[in-house]
């Protein structure tokens, strides 16, 4: 689903901030899963946060695709688009690993106290943490290339205009006198 605008503004810059916040938040939640009280209280909530992040990631990608006809295509914009679309498998694997860990932990809890010394639980959580870190890294790359795609041409144009004017401001100043 491609959403082009929200509240009269381009949807993409608004929608991207939801996964930018929620993916690292879910990664932080995963780090706490080593601690049993945290797991009991926030384990499934972390999975819900990640699911919402995945939905909004897809909406952000769709809204970015809807902008393609509105903006000048540059190498930076193409790189941003490619990197953004590549996050989907990492997020999906992160979600699957997290749900698998939570499911396995719940099954082991039914048998008695859960120890993270259990190699299956520890291994599943380690993979989940690795996928969380990869997803956060990918979000940073996406945000960085997107910011460069938007701002680098503007900064370059501003620097060029300053160089053309010799660093002097143009126009007349009203000193009030």
Structure in words:
This protein is an all-alpha fold. It has a single domain, classed as Four Helix Bundle (Hemerythrin (Met), subunit A) (Up-down Bundle), CATH 1.20.120. Helix content is about 75%, strand content about 0%. The protein has helices at about 10-15, 15-30, 35-65, 75-85, 85-110, 120-165; strands at about 5, 10. Strands 1-2 form a two-stranded antiparallel ribbon. A hairpin with a 2-residue loop joins strand 1 (about 5) and strand 2. Helix 2 packs antiparallel against helix 3 (about 35-65) and helix 5 runs antiparallel to helix 6 (about 120-165). The protein starts with a strand and ends in a 13-residue tail after the last helix. Mean pLDDT is about 85; it is low at about 170-175.
């Amino acid at each position: 689903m491609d959403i082009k605008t929200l509240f009269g503004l381009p949807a993409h810059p608004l929608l991207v901030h939801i996964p930018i916040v929620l993916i690292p938040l879910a990664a932080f939640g995963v780090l706490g899963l080593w601690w049993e009280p945290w797991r009991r209280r926030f384990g499934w909530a972390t999975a819900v946060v990640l699911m919402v992040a995945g939905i909004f990631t897809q909406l952000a990608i769709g809204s970015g695709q809807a902008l393609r006809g509105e903006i000048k295509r540059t190498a930076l914009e193409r790189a941003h688009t490619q990197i953004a679309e590549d996050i989907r498998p990492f997020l999906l694997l992160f979600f699957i690993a997290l749900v698998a860990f939570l499911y396995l932990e719940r099954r082991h809890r039914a048998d008695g106290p859960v120890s993270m010394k259990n190699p299956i639980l520890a291994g599943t959580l380690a993979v989940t943490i690795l996928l969380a870190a990869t997803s956060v890294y990918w979000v940073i790359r996406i945000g960085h290339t997107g910011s460069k795609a938007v701002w680098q041409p503007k900064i370059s144009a501003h620097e060029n205009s300053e160089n053309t004017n010799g660093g002097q401001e143009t126009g007349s100043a009203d000193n009030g006198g």
